[in-house]
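User: Predict structure, ligand MU-OXO-diiron.
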Amino acid sequence: MNKRVEKALNEQVEKEASSSQFYLSMASWAETQGLNGTSKFLYTHSDEERFHMLKLIKFINERGGVAVVPGLSVPKPTFKGIEDVFQLLLDHELRVTESINNLVDICLQEKDYSTHNFIQWYVSEQLEEEALARTILDKIKLIGSDKGGLYLFDRDLENAAIKIDTPPVN
Ligand code: FEO
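Assistant: Predicted complex:
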């Protein structure tokens, strides 16, 4: 496997693993706030990020590279509120998208067209995740300080979490 591509893929492994940890921390915090639907949604989202990481690890190893399992820093344990959580989530996803786009650039520069093809799955995934985070943030802003609205929002997110199915790695 091209060494520059391998290094970039391993950096992406770390980013997906960090995303999983970050969302796990958000899920845990939401659980302590009685936001059960939000918590369930975020636990599921954390699992999805782990799946993104595993998919990369398998690809690197199958292509003759060596996947590196990263050490991770401790994510922040508390948040100012639900808007803070989803704003941080969106900001984080925007940085992940930048990193995926950078990977696409490297694949093209190194003429690694099979990795380029593989990484297109992540390009589409990022579009979906950014759109979802924006939709959720818009809803939170609409709710404002309406407690009844927050209750319904939390219940809706629980249903959204049930719909997300983490596919098998292979
Ligand atoms: Fe795997 Fe949400 O980026």
